[in-house]
Amino acid sequence: MKHKKLLRVLAGESVSPPPIWLMRQAGRYLSEYRAVRAKAGSFLNLCYNPELAIEVTLQPIRRFGFDAAILFSDILVVPHALGVPLDYREGEGPVLQPVRSAEAVAKLSREAIEERLAPVYATVQGLAKSLPPETTLIGFAGVPWTVAAYIVEGQGGTDHATLIRWAWRDPQGFAALIGLLVEATTRHLLAQIQAGAEVVQLFESWGGAAPDALFQRWCIEPVTEIVRRLKAAAPEVPVIGFPRGAGAWLARYAEETGVQGIGVDQGTSLAVARAVVPDRVAIQGNLDPLVLVEGGAALDSEIDRITDLMAGAPHVFNLGHGIHQDTPPEHVAQLIERVRSRRP
Q1: Is 24 a catalytic residue?
Q2: Which is catalytic among the residues 24, 187, 244, 338?
Q3: Is 170 annotated as catalytic?
Q4: How buried is residue 309: exposed, middle or buried, by Cβ count under 10 Å (0-12/13-18/19+)?
Q5: What residue ranges define each of the domains in the chain, with the CATH number in brackets?
Q6: Among 58, 112, 177, 333, which residue's beta carbon has the most beta carbons within 10 A?
Q7: 102-126: per-residue pLDDT in tens?
Q8: Which of 239, 243, 221, 219 is nearest to 231 (CA)?
């Protein structure tokens, strides 16, 4: 732990320069990733092939020397393991067979999740043996509201009307789906920890879609339960929550869920986040992915603003969302050099 900057920050220490990693740091902006993706034949094949998944996870570490590597996988492997048919189509993204009733939830299989996802855990094991000793290994999962959004809508990028109407119309039936996802997500994360993950991140990608009156019950409470179970089984492993679009709920999310770090999206004021998030919780974020695409003086200015604003606080430098596929790799190199060259 003494030489792993991310773990030090998640324990509440202010480190200068801060640790840096990027959401989706292994991905389409890298030519070497595109070559491996073509070899895999499909996105799911890549997720379930430990040799190839290890390779793409390591690519940005070799090229940029990030302080952390995040497992290459996808949040939708959990519903896939539960028996929800899943396909990734070019130009459409993920397409699932929708689940829209308590009766349909009852037909999903909670047995042998770990067996179905064994290739993912083999990837984690391989990464734990392959990473440089100073690099932290991050596992992850989607949280119940966000994963439910895909399961119920059958795809991403919708207005989530079907999801939200079910939550209003039949809270008991909707609770059956959320409860199943709490269990499956916890098991998935614990299996990653057992395989060697040192930190886990919970992605609440669609938190901003939850109406204010539903956010506490369907976003905060399920995550609180997942974190409680993780801490009971693996108290030494920090948890980062990323409630994208949480807005005014950010402070309550950080306070109530029990996470050690909280990701802040680019639409949220970092100054406000620092003011309202409990001091014990590290703040991660929140560089705009599009200023990373732009690069140059604009990028340098934003890096300086963020590092100055977070000086003296436990801070993980990251984006406010995943890296854009059009990002020039040399801009990522610029980002790394600028962050690491700055001093208070």
Answers
A1: yes
A2: 24
A3: no
A4: middle
A5: 5-282 (3.20.20.210)
A6: 177
A7: 999 999 998 999 999 999 999 999 9
A8: 239
- Residue 229 is among the residues annotated as catalytic for this protein: no
Verify whether residue 300 is a known catalytic residue.
Answer: no
Look up 8 and say whether it is catalytic.
no
- Rounded to an integer, what distance in angstroms lies between the CA atom of residue 183 and that of residue 301? 43
**pLDDT at position 283 over 60:** yes
C-alpha of 12 from chain center: 20
pLDDT at 344 over 70: no
Mean pLDDT of 253-258: 98
pLDDT digits (tens, 9 = 90+) for 175-188: 999 999 999 999 99
Catalytic hit among 8, 37, 100, 338: 37
pLDDT of residue 2: 62
Active-site residue, from 28, 34, 274, 340: 28
Is 264:250 a contact under the CB 8 Å cutoff?
A: yes
- The active-site residue, picked from 29, 33, 48, 150, is 150
pLDDT in tens, 26-81: 999 999 999 999 999 999 999 999 999 999 999 999 999 999 999 999 999 999 99
Q: Which of 74, 100, 244, 338 is catalytic?
A: 74
pTM summary value: 0.97
